[in-house]
Amino acid sequence: MKRIKIFLPVLLSFFILWLWSGSSLLSQEDQMNCYSVLAGKKATVNGAVMFAHNEDDGGRQVVRWFRVPAQDHGKKEKILLHKGAKVPQVAHTVAYLWLEMPGMKFSDGFMNEYGVVIASDACSSREDKPALTHGGITWNLRRLMAERAHTAREAVKIGGALVEQYGYASSGRTYCIAGPQEAWMLSVVNGKHWVAARIPDDQVAIIPNYYTITHVDLKDTMNFYGSPDLIEYAEKRGWYDPARDGAFSFRKVYGRPSNQANRRNITREWGGLRHLSGKSYSLDDEFPFSFMPEKKLELQDLMAVLRDHYEGTPLDLTDGYKKGSPHYTKERTICTASTQYGFVAELRSNMPPAMGTVMWLAPRRPCTQAFTPWFAGITRVPADYDGGDWKQAIERHLQKDTTLYVPAKAPAYFSFSAFSEGADKDYGQVIGRVRVANKKFETDIMKNMGNFEKMILPLFDSDKAKALDMLTKYTGQLAEENLKRNDERSNK
Questions:
Q1: Would you say the pTM of this structure is higher than 0.85?
Q2: Is residue 152 included in any domain, yes or no?
Q3: Inside any domain, residue 1
Q4: 44 in a domain, yes or no?
Q5: What's the total number of domains in the chain?
Q6: Using CB atoms within 10 A of its CB, is residue 383 exposed (0-12), middle (13-18) or buried (19+)?
Q7: What is the pLDDT of residues 449-469, one digit of tens each?
């Protein structure tokens, strides 16, 4: 395909904003990065587990897409972690789609061939004496879960075991893990403590950048897993006293207090509750770990959350965009300046995972871009999104490579970025027509998806290779069409 043009003035503005944002950045783990919503299969209209996520990372970034094939491995093969630990490789790893942000330890998204989707949210812990083996594990934790797990529950067990063995080498984090049957949060603490909670099938859970798991019952292995000494260790450290504190809450006990009280976290969780719960919460309320939604959810409901800037509430500081873009106000919005991509994963169990698992992806900012479907069964990545050699990307992932930050190396990312940054210059005038165009584009896709899938489904029995090829072409066609729209909209 012909490479997409990017207008130089807009691109120059993008680079200036990039440099400005990078000059005052905190470490990645300390920023208020990322936002997720998980919905159980009985909380959605079509019975799909759904997982919505905005990946937020400031500074100079790029996103590349890879399709990593399934592989067989030798008995002596090992994976080298960033500080020197060596993890024995398993005999077989599964295929997965990888959204890579080169050089970043905590930003990549994964969707594997069995419908397991993984992304994460930074959560600062109070741990200051972490136990680590050979430097611990960071980025490879999500990669190993993605390439080994056949279900979300299995991914949780794999992740927990790796943390117990090597220790987590950063302040803390919650990995959101969803599959066609279940959705989970796996919260890890600096060192070797962790806990995981299943989102009830009929409920929804929201997480910004603090721990949200409260009640824990490790005897209830249908709904919880975790470190056996989770409570005992907290008592030993003086973080928890049953007589003083009452019932154990992982969030309160292991979370860094300043992070739990951070307004940028509170407002974003409130924003999701405002959209989905049907209840009125104040910023001072204690929010629930999970809740029954006001109504059963559709894709568009979660897309709306990822696009939110608190429009129509006192937290909207733009006066209906009259005062400029909502991405640069004092209130931290859900869709923000540093959002690098957003997705809503639709995980359906009533069809083969290759087709039933769909990542509806909005590159860069969801408020200015349309979501298009990426099927788990695609055999290659669309041309303008393709990051190239996936083996080399894995080997060099944690090496900051400045040669990647040019449009020729990542044409899709830079095109979407240029459009999003350009829209910020006159957001109030631009966003109205952008919303109308995106809604029509998404609605048309959703109307046609049903007929397309009905045509493909029988092929999984008679000619699976043809079915996967058709899914690949369909995904690529829509992804490239979405990319072309940047030029078309920039000229209007």
A1: yes
A2: yes
A3: no
A4: yes
A5: 1
A6: middle
A7: 999 999 999 999 999 999 999
